[in-house]
């Protein structure tokens, strides 16, 4: 089992709708959880982090963490064409930061 | 100027050649990482370092070596490059002083081994 798992997509979402991205992790010792956005050929950029159970909102983005289920999600409200990118889930464990394979998101105009 | 700088940005090399990728940072972070990215495989950790005396292997260290010359510099070497090391390589840093220590990335080095 991979340490961090994501559906590779592509996930197609109409403009203005909510995009929902999911991630599961295997190690219960994981301490912090991150969502990065990566445009093709560019470096990943952090959009959200979360380390406590529950929801965390920042603008159009909401991260959700459920440690009992070992599940992290990212919701993007009012999706825009500029949100089309690959979204990488990452977990920190013992100062290693491990990434999933990423989910490609395509916002349909 | 970028906080995490990688050189070169692009490199084409021949099979069997030794090549070094360099990373320097001005963020003052103690943690530094090297990742490679291949299509469909996400970011995979090659090596990571907590300080100049602490180097650790990641999940795919075979065929690679690293050197932490100073807190701000972390180099990745391919002793004898092979074509399946063709990939996009990223250096990243993080700060142990913050509880959630996210990684900050350099611009990436696109390496092609022919």
Query: Quick one: how many beta strands of chain A?
Result: 11
Helix content of chain A: under 10%
Distance between the termini of chain A: 36 Å
**What is the strand content of chain A?**
over 45%
Q: What is the global morphology of chain B?
A: globular
Structural class category of chain B? mainly beta
Number of helical segments with 4 or more residues of chain A: 0
Main sheet characteristics of chain A: 6 strands, mixed
Q: What is the tally of helical segments of chain B? A: 0
Q: Spans of chain A with pLDDT under 50 lasting ≥5 residues?
A: none
Oligomerization status of the protein chains? heterodimer
Overall mean confidence score, pLDDT of chain B = 93
What sequence of helices (H) and strands (E) makes up the elements of chain B?
EEEEEEEEEEE
Mean pLDDT value of chain A? 93
Task: Report on this structure.
The complex is a heterodimer of chains A (109) and B (114). With 109 residues, chain A is mainly beta. Chain A is 0% helix and 57% strand. Chain A contains no helices and 11 strands. Chain A has strands at 4-5, 11-14, 19-25, 32-38, 45-50, 54-58, 61-66, 71-76, 85-93, 96-99, 103-108. In chain A, strands 2, 4, 5, 9, 10 and 11 form a 6-stranded mixed β-sheet that branches. A 5-stranded antiparallel β-sheet of chain A has the order 1-3-8-7-6, with no helix packed on it. The radius of gyration of chain A is 13 Å and the shape is globular. By secondary structure, chain B is mainly beta. Helix content of chain B is 0%, strand content 57%. In chain B, the strands form 2 sheets. In chain B, strands 2, 4, 5, 6, 9, 10 and 11 form a 7-stranded mixed β-sheet that branches. In chain B, strands 1-3-8-7 form a 4-stranded antiparallel β-sheet, with no helix packed on it. In chain B, strand 4 and strand 5 form a beta hairpin. The mean pLDDT of chain B is 93. The interface between A and B is medium-sized, with 22 and 28 residues.
